[in-house]
């Protein structure tokens, strides 16, 4: 059975790193070929796949607008679950009609006996399948096609579009939320973890090096920003970020950054990761994989200290400060 990479804080693991850090006899643990391959990919820092839910739509016009966005108003080709390849203005309306979205929407607006104030439900989900820059876009699309067929064929209507206009190629998969059996697709964190693993397997089948492990296992910490804040920060328009940076600067002037509430959790997670990797080393040595154990030690030594979001912002402010002073000196010399 394929190994499963690890989410340390919740859910089922993809690769159960913590199990290797538990006390007990290491000779009771046997590494499968799939687990060995996962360890090699991780310590070799193979490119990590990204599978992300990015919006959706709650009305038929909203679905058509979303389809127009991902096919760039008819300029890009849309592939459907039935193998059709559609291109041109107006194909979005045909897809919405073929998926009976008006009927689904009317049904979702019908009398509901649950909680008052229920929010409108999504008619479609938009899922992004992405890899780092340098990945072959055609092979990425082929892997995305195989992934979508495996996960949704004969269960949920779907369509996909390849985008290559950004640094990293990615595939948009638009999935009808209500399945052919009338059941709704609920995408949870465990669902995304499983999808990452399966998408990585399809990429490797196309000859693309791809891995699916959690950030914590790789010694990385995630920024605590929500998507909306992150996107506005990229545009330089995030009021939340400006106010947060101002608070951090004040704390530094008053004696230093105050410990954040997530710091203890980060340190606890890192300890669990280190214990797990040390356990992996012991198992590898017992099994005679000394060279791979050395690589794991090197991988662990290259992990940066875990940082909270405030600490990450503080580090960025420190980096920007000398550059800002240098620009000021240059401006003074040119006056």
What does this structure look like?
This protein has 335 residues and is an alpha+beta fold. A hairpin with a 4-residue loop joins strand 2 (78-80) and strand 3 (85-86). The chain has a six-stranded antiparallel β-sheet with strand order 1-4-6-5-2-3. It is 48% helix and 10% strand. The chain is built from twelve helices and six strands. The model is unreliable at 1-13 (pLDDT under 50). The chain is globular. It has helices spanning 17-20, 33-43, 60-70, 91-98, 101-108, 137-152, 189-205, 227-234, 239-253, 263-286, 290-301, 309-334, and strands spanning 50-57, 78-80, 85-86, 124-130, 158-163, 170-176. It has a domain at 50-108 and 119-205: BirA Bifunctional Protein, domain 2, CATH 3.30.930.
Descriptive terms for the model:
12 helices, alpha+beta, 48% helix, 335 residues, BirA Bifunctional Protein, domain 2
Quick structural summary:
This protein has about 325 residues and is an alpha+beta fold. Helices cover about 50% and strands about 10% of the residues.
């Amino acid at each position: 059975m394929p190994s499963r990479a690890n989410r340390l804080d919740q859910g089922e693991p993809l690769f159960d790193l913590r199990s290797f850090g538990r006390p007990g006899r290491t000779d009771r643990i046997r590494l499968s070929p799939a687990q060995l391959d996962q360890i090699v990919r991780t310590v070799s820092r193979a490119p990590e796949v990204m599978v992300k839910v990015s919006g959706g739509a709650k009305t038929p016009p909203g679905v058509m607008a979303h389809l127009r966005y991902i096919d760039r108003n008819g300029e890009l080709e849309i592939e459907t679950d039935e193998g059709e390849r559609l291109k041109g203005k107006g194909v979005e309306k045909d897809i919405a009609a073929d998926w009976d979205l008006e009927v689904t929407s009317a049904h979702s607006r019908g009398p509901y006996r649950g909680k008052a104030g229920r929010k409108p439900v999504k008619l479609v989900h938009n899922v992004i399948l992405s890899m780092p820059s340098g990945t072959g876009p055609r092979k990425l699309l082929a892997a995305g096609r195989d992934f979508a067929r495996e996960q949704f064929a004969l269960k949920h209507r779907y369509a996909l579009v390849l985008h290559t206009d950004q640094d990293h190629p990615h595939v948009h998969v638009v999935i009808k939320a209500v399945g052919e059996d009338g059941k709704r697709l609920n995408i949870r964190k465990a669902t995304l973890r499983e999808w990452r693993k399966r998408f990585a397997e399809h990429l490797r089948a196309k000859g693309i090096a791809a891995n699916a492990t959690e950030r914590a296992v790789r010694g990385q910490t995630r920024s605590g920003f929500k998507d909306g804040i992150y996107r506005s920060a990229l545009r330089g328009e995030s009021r939340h970020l400006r106010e947060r940076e101002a608070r951090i600067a004040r704390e530094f002037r008053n004696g230093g950054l105050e410990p954040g509430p997530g710091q203890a959790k980060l340190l606890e997670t890192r300890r669990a990761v280190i214990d797990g990797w040390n356990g992996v080393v012991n198992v590898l040595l017992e099994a005679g994989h000394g060279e791979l154990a050395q690589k794991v030690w090197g991988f662990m030594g290259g992990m940066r200290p875990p940082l909270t979001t405030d600490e990450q912002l503080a580090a960025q402010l420190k980096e920007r400060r000398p550059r800002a002073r240098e620009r000021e000196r240059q401006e003074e010399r040119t006056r």
